[in-house]
C-alpha cells in the first residue's frame, strides 16, 4: 500500500527535481515505445537529444534551436505570469496570429518604401495586435464574468479565419499569380527581421525572448506587482484583503501575455517565416503552454524548457529522417513529457509513505 | 568541423556526383523527400511516397531515398530541407505548394543540390518545378457525373481558391454541362488539403442540398464514407485510387502518378543530365491516370468517358476549348481556341454558368 500525505508546503527539492525526473522517465518510456516500433531505443534517444547539440552538422541545428525556442519562450514567459495568478490564457495561438497579421499589415501597407522606422512600427503593431486579442477575454471576464479559458481558446479559431481571409484576400501577393500568401518580407529589407549573426539563428525575436525572460524574472521575484500576482494565485482571498484588484490583475495578465504572443508572431512573420499564409501558425501558442508548465512557471525554468522542447522538435525530425520513426511516435514522445511532469508533480505536493496507512 | 567548411565538403561531394564522377562508383546517390502530410493519408502524400518507392525499386542500388513527413509549411520546411541537404542528399523533392519559399531559400544556399518543387511557379538553376494537369481528370469526372446525375446537382469540395482547384471546378462543370444542360455545380470551400472531419462536414452539407455526385479536391476518404452512408451518391477517388470504395460510391478516380517523373529525374541525376525545367504532365505523359471506371457506370457512359480520355491523351482535345465565357459573361476563349499554359496556371475566375461565388 502506498499512501499519500499532503505536504504543508510544496517541497522545494521536488519542484526542482521533478522536471529532471520527467525528462528521464520520458526517455525511458519513449525508448520502450521506439523499441516496440522496431528501432534501437538508445540510438533514437541519442539522435533526438544528442545529435542536434553535438552530432555532425550540429552547428546548423544549434542555431535552429534558437529559431524554434525563441517564440516558445517569448509566449511562455507571458503566459506564466498569468498562470501564477490563476488567470488561464489558453489562446496564445490566436494572439500570435493577430500579432503577425498586424505587423505584416503595417509592412505591406508601406511596401515598397524603405525606412528605418518601419521595423519598430511593426514591433509596436505586433504587440498591439496580440494585446487587443488578449484584452477581449480580459474585458469580457471583468464585465460579465465569462471564463477567460473558453473565450481565449475560441478566439484562436476566429483568428485562424482572419488569417485565411488575409492570406487569400487583402494581404495576398499581387504578383503571386493568384496563389494565396503575402509578399515575402525576407525580400523587403526594411521589414525583414534577419539573422543578427549569420548562422547563429539569433534574430530580434530571440533577443526579445531573452529580454522577456529577464523582465518577467525581475517582475515576479523582485517587484511588488509580482508578489501580488503570486498571492492572487495562491490565496485569492488574502490578496483581496491586501488590496489587489482582481479586475486590474486580469487585464494586466491577459494583456501582457497577449502582447508577448503578438510580438512572437510578428518576429516570426518578418523573420524565419517571411510570409503570411493560411498555415502560418505552427502551434507555438499551444506548445508554449507546455513550456510554461515544464519550466515551473519560472522565468529561468521556461528558458530551459523552451530549449528542451525545441530540441525534441528538431531531434524528432532527425529521428524521422535517420531512423524512419513516424511523426506520430515523436508527438507521443512530446506528449509523454508533459504527462510525466504532471504525474511527478504529485511528489511536490504530497509525501509518499510505503506500507499500510494508519487507520 | 564548422558549418562553412562542412557545407563546402558537402557541396564538393555533390558536385562530383552531379557531373557524373561519383566519389566511389558504387555509392548510391541520396535523394530526399519532404511531405506535408503523413504518408498514411491515402491521398496526396501517400501518392508521392508510392512514387518514391517505385523510383528506389526501379533504380535499384543507384539511389537511396529518405523522407520527412508531416512537415509544416514555413520555417520548419526550411529546416527539413536543410537537414536533407546536410545529410548529403543530392536531389530533394519538396512535395507541396506551401514549400515554395522554403525551397527557393534553401536552393540558393545549396547550389550543388538539385531541388524539385511540386506545383509551384518559382524556379532557379537548381530548382525545377513539376505539376500535373489534374483538370484533365476533372473533365472525365464531369462527363460521367453529368450523364449519371438524377438530381442535376453536382457537389464539389474545394480546398483553396487557387488556380489548380479553379481549373478543376471549371473543367468538371464544362464537361458536365456539355452532356447535361440542366446541371448545376455547388462548391463548398474546406480551406484544408486534409482534414477528415471538415471534409465529411462539407460532403454532408452538399448531400443535404441534393447533390448526388461529390467531387473532392481534398485528400481523405471521409467524403467517400459519407457518400456511402447516404446511398445513391457517387464519388471519384482523389489523388489515389481509393479502391476501398469500389464499385460504388467511387465510380472512377484521378490518380496522381508521380512515379514515371520521379524515375526520369532520378535517372537524369545518375546520368548527370539533370537540368532545371518546368514540367506540367497530364494523361498523355501518364502523370494523371484515370482509375478503373466501375460497373456502376452505364456502359455507354463508360465508353464516352474512355473516348474522352483517349482524345485528351493523344492531344486531339483540350478540356478548355472555346467558345467559353467567363462567369461575368465576358468572352474568355473564342470558338476553337485553347488557353496558353501560362494563363491556365494563373486561372482565377469561374466560367459562365457556375453560380458559386469565388471567395474574396
UniProtKB/TrEMBL annotation, chain A:
The keyword DNA damage does not apply. Pfam families: BPD_transp_2 (PF02653). CDD domains: TM_PBP1_transp_TpRbsC_like. The chain crosses the membrane at residues 12-38, 58-83, 95-111, 117-140, 149-168, 202-220, 241-264, 284-311, 323-344. InterPro entries: ABC_transp_permease. It is found in: Cell membrane. Its main location: membrane. It comes from the Bacteria. It is a multi-pass membrane protein. Keywords: Cell membrane, Membrane, Transmembrane, Transmembrane helix. GO terms for molecular function: transmembrane transporter activity. GO terms for cellular component: plasma membrane. This is Nucleoside ABC transporter membrane protein. It comes from Rhodobacter viridis.
Automatic annotation (TrEMBL), chain B:
PROSITE patterns: TAT. Residues 30-307 form the ABC transporter substrate-binding protein PnrA-like domain. Residues 1-25 form the signal peptide. GO terms for cellular component: plasma membrane. Pfam families: Bmp. Keywords: Signal. InterPro entries: ABC-Purine-Binding, PnrA-like, TAT_signal, TAT_signal_bac_arc. This is Nucleoside-binding protein. The lineage of its organism: Bacteria, Pseudomonadati, Pseudomonadota, Alphaproteobacteria, Rhodobacterales.
Amino acid at each position: 500500500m502506498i499512501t499519500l500525505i499532503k505536504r504543508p508546503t510544496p517541497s522545494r527539492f521536488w519542484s526542482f527535481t521533478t522536471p529532471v525526473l520527467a525528462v528521464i522517465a520520458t526517455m525511458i518510456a519513449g525508448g520502450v515505445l521506439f523499441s516496440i516500433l522496431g528501432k534501437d531505443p538508445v540510438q533514437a534517444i541519442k539522435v533526438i537529444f544528442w545529435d542536434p547539440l553535438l552530432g555532425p552538422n550540429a552547428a546548423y541545428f544549434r542555431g535552429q534551436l534558437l529559431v524554434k525556442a525563441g517564440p516558445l519562450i517569448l509566449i511562455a514567459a507571458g503566459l506564466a505570469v498569468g498562470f501564477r495568478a490563476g488567470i488561464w490564457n489558453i489562446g496564445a495561438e490566436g494572439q500570435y496570429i493577430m500579432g503577425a497579421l498586424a505587423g505584416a499589415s503595417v509592412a505591406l501597407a508601406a511596401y515598397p518604401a524603405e525606412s528605418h522606422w518601419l521595423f519598430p512600427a511593426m514591433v509596436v503593431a505586433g504587440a498591439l495586435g496580440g494585446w487587443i486579442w488578449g484584452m477581449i477575454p480580459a474585458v469580457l471576464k471583468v464585465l460579465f464574468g465569462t471564463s477567460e479559458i473558453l473565450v481565449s481558446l475560441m478566439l484562436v479559431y476566429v483568428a485562424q479565419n482572419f488569417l485565411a481571409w488575409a492570406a487569400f484576400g487583402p494581404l495576398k501577393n499581387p504578383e503571386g499569380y493568384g496563389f494565396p500568401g503575402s509578399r515575402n518580407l525576407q525580400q523587403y529589407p526594411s521589414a525583414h527581421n534577419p539573422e543578427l549573426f549569420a548562422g547563429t539563428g539569433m534574430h530580434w525575436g530571440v533577443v526579445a525572448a531573452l529580454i522577456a525572460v529577464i523582465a518577467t524574472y525581475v517582475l515576479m521575484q523582485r517587484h511588488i506587482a509580482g508578489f501580488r500576482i503570486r498571492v492572487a494565485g495562491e490565496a485569492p482571498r488574502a490578496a483581496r484583503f491586501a488590496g489587489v484588484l482582481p479586475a486590474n490583475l486580469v487585464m494586466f495578465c491577459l494583456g501582457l501575455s497577449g502582447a508577448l504572443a503578438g510580438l512572437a508572431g510578428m518576429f516570426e512573420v518578418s523573420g524565419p517565416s517571411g510570409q503570411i499564409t493560411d498555415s502560418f501558425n505552427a502551434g507555438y501558442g499551444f506548445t508554449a503552454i507546455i513550456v510554461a508548465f515544464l519550466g515551473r512557471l519560472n522565468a529561468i525554468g521556461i528558458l530551459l524548457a523552451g530549449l528542451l522542447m525545441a530540441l525534441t522538435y528538431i531531434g524528432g525530425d532527425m529521428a524521422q529522417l535517420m531512423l524512419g520513426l513516424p511523426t506520430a511516435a515523436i508527438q507521443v514522445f512530446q506528449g509523454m513529457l508533459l504527462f510525466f511532469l504532471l504525474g511527478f508533480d504529485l511528489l511536490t505536493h504530497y509525501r509518499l509513505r510505503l506500507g499500510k496507512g494508519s487507520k | 568541423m564548422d558549418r562553412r567548411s562542412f557545407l563546402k565538403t558537402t557541396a564538393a561531394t555533390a558536385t562530383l556526383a552531379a557531373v557524373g564522377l561519383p566519389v566511389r562508383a558504387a555509392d548510391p546517390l541520396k535523394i530526399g523527400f519532404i511531405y506535408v502530410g503523413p504518408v498514411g493519408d491515402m491521398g496526396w502524400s501517400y501518392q508521392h511516397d508510392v512514387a518514391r518507392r517505385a523510383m528506389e525499386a526501379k533504380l535499384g542500388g543507384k539511389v537511396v531515398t529518405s523522407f520527412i513527413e508531416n512537415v509544416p509549411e514555413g520555417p520548419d520546411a526550411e529546416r527539413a530541407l536543410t537537414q536533407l541537404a546536410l545529410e548529403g542528399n543530392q536531389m530533394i523533392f519538396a512535395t507541396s505548394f506551401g514549400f515554395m519559399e522554403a525551397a527557393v531559400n534553401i536552393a540558393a544556399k545549396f547550389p550543388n543540390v538539385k531541388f524539385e518543387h511540386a506545383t509551384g511557379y518559382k524556379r532557379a538553376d537548381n530548382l525545377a518545378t513539376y505539376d500535373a494537369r489534374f483538370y484533365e481528370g476533372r473533365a472525365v469526372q464531369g462527363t460521367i457525373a453529368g450523364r449519371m446525375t438524377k438530381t442535376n446537382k453536382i457537389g464539389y469540395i474545394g480546398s483553396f481558391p487557387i488556380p489548380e482547384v479553379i481549373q478543376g471546378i471549371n473543367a468538371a462543370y464544362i464537361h458536365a454541362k456539355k452532356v447535361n444542360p440542366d446541371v448545376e455545380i455547388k462548391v463548398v470551400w474546406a480551406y484544408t488539403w486534409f482534414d477528415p472531419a471538415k471534409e465529411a462536414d462539407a460532403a454532408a452539407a452538399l448531400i443535404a442540398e441534393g447533390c448526388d455526385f461529390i467531387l473532392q479536391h481534398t485528400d481523405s476518404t471521409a467524403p467517400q464514407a459519407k457518400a456511402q452512408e447516404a446511398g445513391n451518391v457517387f464519388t471519384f477517388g482523389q489523388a489515389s485510387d481509393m479502391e476501398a470504395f469500389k464499385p460504388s460510391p467511387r465510380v472512377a478516380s484521378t490518380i496522381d502518378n508521380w512515379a514515371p517523373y520521379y524515375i526520369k529525374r532520378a535517372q537524369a541525376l545518375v546520368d548527370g543530365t539533370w537540368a532545371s525545367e518546368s514540367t506540367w504532365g497530364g494523361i498523355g505523359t501518364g502523370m494523371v491516370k484515370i482509375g478503373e471506371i466501375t460497373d456502376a457506370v452505364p456502359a455507354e457512359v463508360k465508353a464516352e468517358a474512355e473516348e474522352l480520355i483517349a482524345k485528351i491523351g493523344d492531344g486531339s482535345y483540350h478540356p478548355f476549348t472555346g467558345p467559353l465565357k467567363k462567369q461575368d459573361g465576358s468572352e474568355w476563349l473564342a470558338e476553337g481556341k485553347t488557353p496558353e499554359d501560362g494563363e491556365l496556371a494563373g486561372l482565377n475566375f469561374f466560367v459562365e454558368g457556375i453560380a458559386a461565388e469565388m471567395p474574396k
